[in-house]
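Reopening this ticket.

The earlier resolution said the output was attached, but the attachment link was broken on my side. Pasting everything inline this time so it's all in one place.
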Amino acid sequence: MRIKYYPDADALDIRVSDEKPDYGEEAGEEMILHYTKLGKLVKIEILDASKTIIDFLEPILSEKPLIKERMELKV
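Inline output:
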């Protein structure tokens, strides 16, 4: 897997395969999934990435860290 960010387009490109994509399908407003002719996922393209990724991670990052929880259990 390779991940590349394009700041000029604010796009995040996640390659899950080295195969060439043949077509893409929108998966919501900020995501395009790219596939081969046989329907194998090749690439995930996230548009408006700086906002989209933060919106996605915010609920996860607001949770209490697992390390702290484990330390509390030992006490």
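Reporter confirms the inline version is readable. Residues 2-74 form one domain. The two ends are 40 Å apart (CA to CA).
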